[in-house]
Design brief:
This protein is of the alpha+beta class. It is built from 16 helices and 33 strands. 23% of the residues lie in helices and 24% in strands. Strands 2, 5, 6, 8, 9, 10 and 11 form a 7-stranded mixed β-sheet that branches. Strands 15, 16, 17, 18, 19 and 20 form a 6-stranded antiparallel β-sheet that branches. A 6-stranded mixed β-sheet has the order 31-32-28-30-29-33, with helices on one face. The two termini are 39 Å apart.
């Protein structure tokens, strides 16, 4: 791919990214198709190794504990894989490594006290299906390890061949399997998931060792991302995976791992098929659809990419799924009649390659790649790609997605325990009613919080008992609550964020009442796209004075060339929110906000103060500019407030502010009524504002 010393392109094969060449001519017989059973306990599902405990475990333990960030505790069994974001271009610059994107099945392996267990990405037990992989892992010189990799079959040129892999699995071909391992979050009772990826891979490479075999180490190239990507295409590979060299291993989708592919592919539901023509058997083409606004939207036909064996196999899978009624509406311009289609239940997920979208919203030059047996229909609504969503999804599209999810397009599937528990004693509002509020308000809430690092206020015993803020990701929050590793003074730490209704409700299930997002996205956490001035009135300040102060801030911002929007805090004050193009960094943003607040305080010291000192705030309004530092947050629009009256932070149009009677004028029920009556977002156009900080 790329020489490590001079970054010049050279001829390459997949084995150049492996530590050892693939074995040739290994006999293999499969008598049955792959089983699909749920994973049980490791001791029941796994295969015990024949190798006795070795002193080598102590050596690996010592090596692991020497890594930065290592923890003297086993990495949890049953772990979930780290998932990639998708981008069109490879990252350029230092701090990235680049691996071949292998086209196979994701395979997680664990050894617990000598018991080997294999699991699919979705948690299916594959231990009995690949005995040669179990045997190879059992031969490793350690009795406790967690491995993440891809199960592949390599062609004669050393490229992974998914079709060949499927034939090996279903027993119609004999070729050697390879388990290409690219990460190791735990070894010898030590959790190294927080250690830098480069350190984990160095230890992994040493563990697997040289020599041909079923296990292979997935090597990498440092830096030169665009050149690596270009060379991978010339060598005939599907693409690359780019990873931050210092990234921890997280059990979620992360922008620290990026997938870059040479052709556009996506996953769609098969909703029907047409009859074959001429000598073709099985079917003519597959009809594809995608979840959209509570139902399914037709996206086109796929008629290429099949051989005779695949046509037969797919036909056998489709016929038992036959239904009488169409699952989608066909556009008027399609060149066939709906009555000529054999409709099926939309449960099979297909990966399709295509050359973009036609103006009618249909796939161009679509070709079948494979059936994604490891995915279900629900995955199409739940899959998240945080980086691209945050960059490419504006407020309108996020709201449309939330509408679809709330309507059942991607059912949240979140059960709320103890829904009868009273959370707001004064108003008798229960946990179940809080969940219903956020479920109904998702179309308004998600555009403000999705794909942003979050702090949440959790109140396990209601608002009258102690509540606590949480910003770090942790176990038990739910799989739709995602993690993003961010650099802090203490090192890299996993912050939480959400992408969809399921994530929102899983936070509510964990007794979250308030949502406090960063003023930046997970795609670009170092450059704010929102500033907030929180006007906090001291004792003796009237509500009329607070409203006048908000207009004063608005006008002074306009003098600097910045447009702003207004929000009731749901407590005592008002927020003035400034949208930005993410150009300035946090230091520049903080300096601007501090100088702005100080100037207002100096101009009108009888009205404003720019310091947190309680002693100086009586009779004046604190212009809180401190919300605009890296890691600081402010409450989101439409978030509940953990106060006795169950107030809500409600966005307004500036012309509405005059008739509002208090900062907490909208308790939960009234806020819901307001949202249901709104014909237009009060902050309509906020994402279209193109402005930058003066001097940025």
């Amino acid at each position: 791919l790329i020489k490590r010393d001079d970054a010049q392109a050279r001829d390459a094969e997949a084995d150049d990214m492996l530590d050892t060449p693939p074995p040739r001519g290994t006999a293999r017989t499969r008598a049955a198709a792959t089983k699909r059973a749920p994973t049980g306990a490791a001791a029941k599902a796994g295969k015990r190794t024949a190798t006795p405990a070795r002193k080598a475990d102590a050596r690996w333990r010592t090596r692991a504990l020497a890594l930065d960030g290592a923890r003297d505790a086993p990495y949890p069994p049953g772990f979930k894989p780290q998932l990639t974001d998708h981008r069109a271009t490879a990252p350029d610059g230092d701090g990235w490594l680049h691996e071949i994107k292998w086209d196979g099945y994701r395979l997680l392996a664990e050894v617990n006290d000598g018991v080997v267990a294999l699991r699919s990405r979705g948690g299916l037990n594959w231990t009995d299906d690949f005995p040669e992989v179990v045997q190879a892992i059992a031969a490793l010189p350690v009795r406790d390890v967690r491995l993440d990799g891809e199960l592949v079959v390599l062609d004669a040129q050393g490229r992974s061949d998914f079709t060949a892999l499927q034939k090996v699995i279903d027993g119609t071909a004999k070729q050697p399997l390879r388990y290409v391992v690219f990460d190791m979050p735990g070894i010898a009772g030590v959790d190294i998931s927080r250690s830098a990826l480069l350190q984990r891979k160095a230890l992994l490479k040493e563990l697997i060792g040289p020599g041909p075999g079923t296990l292979a180490y997935s090597d990498h190239v440092l830096d030169h991302g665009p050149a690596v990507f270009a060379a991978s295409g010339e060598a005939g590979f599907e693409g690359i995976i780019s990873k931050r060299v210092d990234a921890p291993y997280v059990n979620a989708r992360s922008p620290a791992w990026i997938k870059i592919k040479h052709e556009s592919t996506d996953e769609f539901l098969i909703v029907g098929y047409t009859d074959p023509k001429g000598a073709r058997s099985g079917f003519g083409s597959l009809l594809m659809a995608t979840p959209d606004k509570g139902g399914l939207r037709y996206v086109g036909r796929v008629g290429t990419g099949f051989d005779d064996a695949l046509l037969g196999a797919l036909t056998r899978q489709l016929k038992p799924l036959a239904v009488a009624d169409a699952g989608v509406d066909l556009p008027a311009h399609v060149p066939f009649k709906a009555r000529s289609v054999h409709w099926v239940k939309p449960v099979l997920v297909a990966e399709v390659a295509f050359r973009g979208w036609a103006k009618e919203g249909l796939l161009r030059q679509a070709s079948f790649k494979r059936l994604r047996e490891d995915k279900s229909a629900g995955d199409l609504g739940a899959a998240g790609q945080a980086t691209e969503k945050a960059k490419g999804m504006n407020k309108t599209t996020r709201k449309a997605k939330a509408d679809a999810q709330a309507a059942g397009d991607a059912p949240d599937g979140v059960s709320i325990s103890h829904p009868e528990r009273v959370v707001f004693a004064k108003t008798k509002i229960t946990k179940g009613e809080v969940a219903d509020y956020y479920r109904q308000m998702a179309r308004w809430v998600l555009p403000e919080v999705a794909a942003r690092p979050l702090s949440v206020l959790r109140c396990p015993d209601g608002v009258d008992k102690p509540c606590f803020f949480q910003k770090h990701h942790g176990t038990g929050l739910g799989e739709a609550v995602r993690a993003i590793p961010l650099e802090q003074k203490s090192g890299r730490e996993d912050y939480l964020y959400i992408e969809d209704v399921a994530g929102l409700l899983q936070l509510v299930q964990m007794n979250t009442l308030e949502l406090h997002p960063w003023g930046a996205t997970v795609a670009d956490p170092e450059h704010p796209d929102r500033l907030v001035f929180d006007l906090d009135p001291g004792d003796g300040v009237s509500w009329a004075q607070v409203k006048a102060a908000a207009r004063d801030v608005r006008d002074r911002l306009l003098d600097t060339g910045l447009q702003s929007f207004v929000r009731l805090s749901g407590g005592k004050g008002v927020h003035v929110v400034v949208p930005l193009q993410p150009k300035a960094d946090w230091a520049q943003a903080k300096d601007f906000c501090e100088a702005f607040a100080q100037a207002m305080a100096e101009h009108a010291p009888d009205r404003y103060v720019a310091t947190m000192s309680k002693a100086k705030r009586t009779g004046v309004i604190f212009i809180d500019w401190l919300r605009n530092a890296r890691g600081a947050t402010s409450v989101s629009s439409w978030s509940l407030r953990a106060r006795p009256g169950a107030g809500v932070a409600v966005p307004l149009r500036w012309e509405e502010l005059g008739r509002i009677t208090a900062a907490d004028a909208f308790p939960m029920a009234k806020a819901l009524q307001r949202a249901q009556r709104l014909k237009q977002d009060p902050w309509d156009g906020i994402d279209a504002v193109k402005q930058v900080l003066p001097g940025a």
